[in-house]
Amino acid sequence: xxxxxxxxxxxxxxxxxxxxxxxxxxxxxxxxxxxxxxxxxxxxxxxxxxxxxxxxxxxxxxxxxxxxxxxxxxxxxxxxxxxxxxxxxxxxxxxxxxxxxxxxxxxxxxxxxxxxxxxxxxxxxxxxxxxxxxxxxxxxxxxxxxxxxxxxxxxxxxxxxxxxxxxxxxxxxxxxxxxxxxxxxxxxxxxxxxxxxxxxxxxxxxxxxxxxxxxxxxxxxxxxxxxxxxxxxxxxxxxxxxxxxxxxxxxxxxxxxxxxxxxxxxxxxxxxxxxxxxxxxxxxxxxxxxxxxxxxxxxxxxxxxxxxxxxxxxxxxxxxxxxxxxxxxxxxxxxxxxxxxxxxxxxxxxxxxx
Length: 354
Ligand code: NAD
Ligand code: IPM
Ligand code: MN
What we know:
By secondary structure, this protein is an alpha/beta fold. It has two domains: 1-101 and 260-354, Isopropylmalate Dehydrogenase; 118-254, Isopropylmalate Dehydrogenase, CATH 3.40.718.10. It has twelve helices and 14 strands. Strands 2-1-3-12-11-4-5-10-8-9 form a ten-stranded mixed β-sheet, sandwiched between helices. A two-stranded antiparallel ribbon has the order 6-7. The two termini are 28 Å apart.
């Protein structure tokens, strides 16, 4: 039986992951696919229990599993640890690097029911349907870091190899080819050498995809264009940190960061997690929106197990619940029916079965 390593992690991770598992189990009752879900400690929770954010047993389980479902890691309790021991670095970046998960896919679609939930105007966001491919194992996050004395200084090296750029850009072209055939590569080639290199490699890869319209955009302009006219975008591809920042921004085009699912792939295995963090400000209160994690479960069925029908069943159940006016607090407007985390999970389960 295929195995899924389940890593709830910290903060709201503990609340949202169980809802996603319930939904996955329900959708699979009518399917020939059986999955074995097993939970492992990660992040601050693992530091508290086992002394480190990515225990060897958890890493081994992820390496052995067919897919990984993760909640979130990090929180104020662990913020003062030395950098290499922190949940974000040791667990999240550690897992991404150890599993070679170089391609982070973050789809951003405005569901009709949520067009008034965004902080941005309905007219601007209502037709948003884009996907960001974020390079996930290179760039500033993984380049050499250090401190200097006299005078005191710090540095993070931004470096990209040709292979690293080529494989994410190729996947972006492949993604665009199956969508509206528009690819926007986001960089800062007016300043950064890594970006000029990124453009060169992108142009070379483009030769194999004449049917895809390729454009280049500076990252500062891309941030502005995303909120001015998101409809202009189909597929975006960018380096690690630009992708981190742009996707939090883009999440508001779908109503809330609580809606943004993600898949991190290496060509064989996938790790699935919401794009948001552990939300310490609302953790433990049954307030978190579990839909980004539930939708990450749908991405798992699509990308790791090729179960398009079951993936769509989850996505349709989520749409149904929202169409019926149910919202978690992050999406709610006056007049909406506000649900807690668990109750939103119940509502998706009920919609699946209806
Ligand atoms: P965050 O995404 O946790 O929260 C930002 C804001 O969005 C908060 O107001 C939060 O309440 C809200 N929010 C996030 N997810 C929500 C949801 N599902 N439903 C409703 N509201 C939601 O970002 P942050 O506050 O900058 O970071 C908190 C911690 O999470 C930090 O330790 C950070 O390093 C970590 N983090 C982890 C991940 C990850 O594990 N993948 C991602 C981002 C941040
Ligand atoms: C994300 C997060 C992580 C990142 C942090 C927690 C290391 O913000 O998954 O977007 O920057 O990649
Ligand atoms: Mn982020």
